[in-house]
Amino acid sequence: MASASVLPRSVVSPIGKHTASLIFLHGSGDTGAGIKSWIKLVLKQDLAFEHIKVIFPTAPAQPYTPMMSEMSHVWFDRYKISMDCPENLESVDSMCQTLTNLIDEETKSGIPKNRILLGGFSMGGAMAMHLAYRCHRDVAGVFALSSFLNKDSIVYKELKEVKYTLPELFQCQGDADTLVLPKWGEETSKVLKSLGVTTTFHGFPDMYHELSLAELQKLRAWILKKLPMETALTQER
């Protein structure tokens, strides 16, 4: 089981006053610096904002079962990359606590939970859904790119008991993805919607298990919708 009280991270600082934060979790085997560079390659610029700090943490290295237990930077271990298997809850829960420490860093710096977005690519998106829908249901929203939850996920079981408003979910999925099948993402969206989550699902023709310009542009617009500038609110104060 991996543990790291302070995760290394890459950060894109806001250009102006910091009033919101976004935590972007990489996919299995990657790093925070790696996905930050990948996004910059696709967008031709950093994922940067006037008021939002973008944090790209790196998962601790731990044995990863789908890679024959070789060490890899992953948010949690799993038995196989499939909807049809149990979740390794000990591994997932340990990382929920570690990432909670990162969220706490932001709230202690003065950023309220409703001004924090959680999300990620592939495994990072799954981790973000566990983190938000089980531990931090008061964040501004969640995004999951090329991601899914297991068929009998603990997330679904715990949400059955929730009666209040949940963070909105923004999903993107490549129709040509052969690693995370499109139907897995669609099923995740369908089940979460049935449990009270407002979901938006975007499919992208001919996109594999990757990031695309059109996808990142849609994501950027959604981020700004969920974390708008606070100019008017500041003036009222």
Got a strand count? Answer: 9
SSE arrangement, N to C = EEHEEEHEHEHEHEHH
Structural class: alpha/beta
Residue share in β-strands: 15-25%
Q: Please state the overall shape, judged from the principal axes of the Cα atoms.
A: globular
DSSP helix count? 7
Distance between the termini: 46 Å
The mean pLDDT is 93
- Largest sheet, strands/sense/barrel: 7 strands, mixed
Tell me the radius of gyration.
Answer: 17 Å
Classified in CATH, the superfamily is Alpha/Beta hydrolase fold, catalytic domain
Indicate the percent of residues in helices: 25-40%
Lateral strand order in the biggest sheet: 1-3-2-6-7-8-9
The CATH architecture: 3-Layer(aba) Sandwich
Number of domains: 1
CATH topology: Rossmann fold
What are the segments in which pLDDT stays under 50 over at least 5 consecutive residues?
232-237
CATH class: Alpha Beta
Enzyme class: hydrolase
Main location: cytoplasm
EC number: 3.1.2.22
Protein name: Lysophospholipase-like protein 1
Short description:
The chain is built from seven helices and nine strands.
Structure report:
This protein is an alpha/beta fold. It has a single domain (9-227), classed as Rossmann fold. It has seven helices and nine strands. It has helices at residues 32-43, 89-108, 123-135, 154-159, 182-194, 213-226, 231-236; strands spanning 9-12, 20-25, 52-57, 61-64, 70-73, 116-121, 141-145, 168-174, 199-204. Helix 2 packs across helix 3 (123-135). 40% of the residues are buried. Belongs to the AB hydrolase superfamily. AB hydrolase 2 family.
